[in-house]
Write a sequence for this structure.
């Protein structure tokens, strides 16, 4: 009986080790299969939504060119960059240029952008006041209280003729940089995540798309105005494809960028995200 028990335990350990190894080997197996099929593999790290979803749309396009696009989803904003730096991934798609530049500076990495794909616009949403034209003198406007998003909010208000900001402030602007405020707007600075729930207590609120959508707001239907694709904020905070410096001319990367800036992807983005994601190309 003891011998039988020992044999069962030994078999269980072998199966367990095989199962543990299968996950680690899956990527190598996929690469081997692609090579056997005469395809080259392109590994891209991405955030689940919308980045990985958008990448799925170009798999057939790249397959026709002999490229097997393999997308790995990451929930964090560190590993996608370190994996590209270390050569475990060929490219990534999850970040904008200011984050990329800061990451390189703080971590000594050598990542570069090869092209921008989309941006996630801020919108001005109605609260007590239904339209921008109806804003009364002294109306209250809720804006994010972090530096980057507050400046984006103020730039959007300026683009819609509500305020004028000191040109020197740019994307570091705060309410202190407002040089003209004809409606005497009052600003309520809140954490970006709390803005959707604050709408009922203010006249209008400027809300990030990633917080507006989960709260039930439609960027395309509810927003009174959104950041234009040619705005400084949209161009600055566009989500991009990044590779390790020196790999910009990789034919697989060029094929990926061409596929991601195709009419197929533009149509997918416009039809899927209800304005919360906008193509930048």
């Amino acid at each position: 009986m003891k011998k039988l028990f020992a044999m069962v335990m030994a078999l269980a350990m072998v199966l367990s080790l095989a199962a543990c190894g299968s996950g680690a080997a899956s990527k190598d197996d996929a690469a081997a299969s692609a090579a056997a099929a005469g395809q080259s593999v392109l590994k891209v790290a991405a955030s689940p939504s919308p980045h990985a979803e958008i990448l799925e749309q170009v798999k057939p396009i790249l397959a026709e060119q002999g490229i097997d696009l393999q997308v790995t989803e990451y929930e964090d904003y560190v590993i996608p960059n370190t994996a590209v730096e270390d050569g475990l991934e060929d490219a990534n798609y999850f970040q904008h240029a200011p984050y990329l530049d800061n990451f390189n500076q703080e971590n000594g990495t050598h990542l570069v952008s090869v092209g921008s794909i989309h941006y996630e616009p801020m919108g001005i949403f109605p609260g007590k006041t239904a339209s921008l034209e109806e804003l009364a003198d002294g109306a209250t406007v809720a804006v994010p209280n972090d530096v980057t998003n507050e400046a984006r909010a103020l730039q959007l208000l300026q683009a819609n003729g509500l305020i004028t900001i000191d040109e020197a402030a740019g994307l570091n602007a705060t309410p202190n940089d407002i040089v003209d405020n004809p409606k005497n707007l009052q600003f309520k600075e809140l954490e970006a995540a709390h803005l959707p729930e604050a709408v009922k207590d203010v006249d209008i609120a400027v809300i990030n798309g990633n917080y507006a959508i989960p709260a039930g707001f439609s960027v395309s239907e509810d927003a009174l105005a959104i950041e234009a694709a040619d705005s400084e904020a949209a161009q600055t905070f566009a989500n991009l494809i990044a590779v390790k410096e020196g790999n910009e001319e990789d034919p697989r990367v060029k094929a990926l960028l061409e596929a991601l800036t195709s009419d197929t992807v533009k149509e997918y983005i416009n039809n899927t995200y209800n304005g919360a994601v906008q193509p930048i190309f």
